Amino acid sequence: MDNGRNGAGANGLTASSCNVAPVPQSEIAAICERFGNDKHRMLDILHDVQDRYRCIAPSTMDAIASHTDLTRIEVEGVASFYSFLSLTPKGRVTIRLCDDIVDRFCGLDDVVAVFEDVLGIKLGETSADGAFSLETTPCIGMCDQAPAAMVNNVMLTSLTPETARTAAEALMAGQAPESLVSDRFNELSAHERAVRMVENNIRHAGAVLLGPVPEDAGLNNAVGMRPSQIINAVEESGLRGCGGAGFTTGRKWRFAASEKLDRHFVICNADEGEPGTFKDRVLLTERPHLLVEGMTIAARAVGAREGILYLRGEYVYLRELLEGVLEERRRRGLLGKDILGVKGFEFDIRLQLGAGAYICGEEGALISSCEGLPGEPKTRPPFPVSRGYLGYPTVVNNVETFCHAARILDQGAKWFHAMGTEGSHGTKLFSVCGDCLNPGIYELPYGHSVWELLEMVGGTDAAAVQVGGPSGTMIGRDSFHRKLTFDDLATGGAIIIFNGQRNILEIVEYYMSFFVHESCGYCTPCRVGNVFLQKAIQKFQKGLANPEDIDYLKDLSGTIIETSRCGLGMTSPNPILSTLKNFPLVYSAVSKPSKDGIRDTFDIQSAIDGARKIAKRRSYIFDKDFTQ
């Protein structure tokens, strides 16, 4: 049986379909060796190959497998899972236009048309000379400055047909993507490059994260405390996870610390892939030291010596900035051995770049990705705090949570606990986008109503607000009095505003298409059920739905929620369920009883279309214009 490890030819070259010339096996060997031939660094290896050769060819996978002691199929399983990796050649310049619903409403179609016109290719195509690929991608965390695009590792934001044409023509003329940012790009610091590409749009700085922050004050306090004291302080503050689930942070740390294994890990989840969320992007840009400080405090609390910062692939433009911060902190004795001169206090962090997979925001899938596997959720129990990365106790928190923890160790638990409301303590970063005058980041204490936030952002003509992104809740004007707290309207941060001109069903259908695209495919209810939900919504859009179809939506949604393996399937029906509840007239207005009591649920032409393609012939029974 071929184990996929014999791809090298006798001449020492791997035959690559990505380039005219084959890729020398020595180059693949060097890439693998750079990462210690470690199968757990598979995503890093594949990133490197993709960046150099524009795709991951079959024979290249054979070579990688031989150096990492894996089978070819294991390597291909990873390479084929992530959307930013490709088994077929990509252009030397790959342009990924964000097609989130906010981008669509901001003029994406016109921007796409310009790129297609100038580049001479359509969406999904690569130019014949291999110079350009043009494609769309889900939300890239730039909803406050849409339409946006990734051009290789360069971000373009607030695109118009005019600026898109200027950019496309410059690329066609042979200019590097970096020149679209500045003709002095190489002279700029990593931070200057980041803020030239992407606006921070900090609209309201609060008392915890975006106001004045003293340097490493929390860490200086933590080194003089016992691990149990650090955990007590975090627990007494009332800090809860800021990614949406809201689990008590101190308890999570306590569970991990109680495990008596010889290795513990701290992982930062910087994979904020929820459409409409971009708060962590701002913290990564403006508070990277605070983030690393919080991770280091967590490491001291749970006894971890190793950490991973998992950065979503869409934020690759921040990689240089973050790697520079880590290196600076090593030089200053804030990472590595004997941190701040404390004997035995050892902790370091490696940066793991994702590759375009929404599911990796789920902590089990994220851990799988860090292990060099496809980003599929893990079965629970065991939970990560007891058996996480490589089977060891692992704390996973997001960027905002670690930053809060550092501030709590600086100012004290009582200070943090006094802000917000009962059960929702401290401040929250809200990512606001959509139909409002001032999209951006607002740091506010928990407890504000939706209406109060709308007044701040200039969105008082809102007809609907999506709280928590697609996996959250869409509410109408009759619910704008509700509070932004864990006990009322919980959110990881996303607030998307829609005015009365927007079509609710169009929004719902887009969100369902997003979940269909981003499902890892592991379990049938999520993989298949969401497709059925999307098709059902399309029936409503076309005016073909019956009142009974509303019950169908509810029943199928319930089945998906109850039987799915991870959080994606458990929340994917929310766009439908929340709009059925809060916008019932939208559905009833476009559904009508069937004639003769027969439900119009089966379209014979659509059903046999696949058969036509397979058989390469038409049906003389069902095709009315068919003649033999």
From TrEMBL:
Q: Which residues form the NADH-ubiquinone oxidoreductase 51kDa subunit iron-sulphur binding domain?
A: 505-550
Cofactors demanded by this protein: FMN
Q: For this UniProt record, give its keywords in alphabetical order, as a comma-separated list.
A: 4Fe-4S, Iron, Iron-sulfur, Metal-binding
InterPro entries, sorted: NADH-UbQ_OxRdtase_51kDa_CS, Nuo51_FMN-bd, Nuo51_FMN-bd_sf, NuoE_dom, NuoE_N, Nuop51_4Fe4S-bd, Nuop51_4Fe4S-bd_sf, Thioredoxin-like_sf
UniProt cross-references to Gene3D superfamilies, sorted A to Z: 3.10.20.600, Glutaredoxin, NADH-quinone oxidoreductase subunit E, NADH-ubiquinone oxidoreductase 51kDa subunit, NADH-ubiquinone oxidoreductase 51kDa subunit, iron-sulphur binding domain
Domain of life of the organism encoding this protein: Bacteria
CDD domains in alphabetical order: TRX_Fd_NuoE
**Pfam families per the UniProt record, alphabetical:** 2Fe-2S_thioredx, Complex1_51K, NADH_4Fe-4S
State the similarity comment.
Answer: Belongs to the complex I 51 kDa subunit family.
Question: Sorted alphabetically, which PANTHER family does this protein's record hold?
Answer: NADH-QUINONE OXIDOREDUCTASE SUBUNIT F
Protein's recorded name: NAD(P)H-dependent oxidoreductase subunit E
Which species is this UniProt entry from? Roseibium porphyridii
